Amino acid sequence: MSGACAAALLPLAEPIKAHVFAAARIHGDDTTVPVLAKVKTKTGRLWTYVRDDRPFGGAASPAAVYFYSPDRGGAHPEQHLAGYAGILQADAYGGFNALYEAERKPGLITEAACWAHARRKLFELADAASKARNKSSAVISPIAFAAVQKFDAIFALERGIQWAATRPASRCAQQRYRPAGQRVHRVDETGAGEAVAPQRRRQGV
Questions:
Q1: H/E element holding 189?
Q2: CA atoms within 13 Å, Cβ hemisphere of 183
Q3: Sign of CA dihedral 131, 133, 137, 141
Q4: Structure confidence by residue, pLDDT tens digits, 151-189
Q5: How far apart are the C-alpha atoms of 102 and 119, rounded to whole Å?
Q6: Is residue 178 helix, strand or coil?
Q7: Residue extents of the structural domains in the chain
Q8: Is CB count within 10 Å lower at the N or C end of the chain?
Q9: Are 187 and 145 in contact (CB under 8 A)?
C-alpha cells in the first residue's frame, strides 16, 4: 500500500523537489527514523532540504523535500544535491564536505555553517567542567565559558535584527552587527585571545 501511495503522489513530489532545489539558498539536515525489520527495529535516516526565502524578502513559497536512506553515508546527500548549486546551510557532518569542493559540477555549493552546532560542544564542555571537581576543569571551564558567551552575544544581536520582519533595504543598515560574527576568539585560561576564522570539522557530528 505504501509503495502504491508513493507512486501516486510522485507527480506532486517532483514539482516540489524542483521548486526547493531552484532556490539560491537551502537548509539541509537529517534525523534518525525507526525502520521495522524481521528481528529488531533498525535505524534509518530521513534527509530534509528546505527552501524558505521569506526571511530574505523573497516571494517564493516555502517548501521542503524529504529523502530516506538506510544509513548516513555521504553518498546520499551527494546524490540528493547532484544538480544543485547555491548556498547550503547545514551542520558540520563530514558527509557534506565533498559538496563544497571548488571544482564541483554542475556548480559551486557554498557552505553556510551553523553557529548553533558550533556552540553545542563548547556548551557541553562548559557544563561538564562546571560540575567537575578535578584539576583539568579549572583550565577547561574558562575557555569553554568564554566561547559560549561570544556565541550568545551573536545570537542576541541576531534576535534584535528580526530577520522575518525586516525588509532587505533596511537590513543594509545592520552592518554594525558584522564584526561580532567576524571576531571569534581562541581564549586561553588567562583570558587572552587570538582572532581566528571558524573552521569546519572534518568528522561526522
A1: none
A2: 11
A3: positive
A4: 888 888 777 765 545 555 555 555 555 555 555 544 444
A5: 27
A6: helix
A7: 2-113, 115-196
A8: N
A9: no
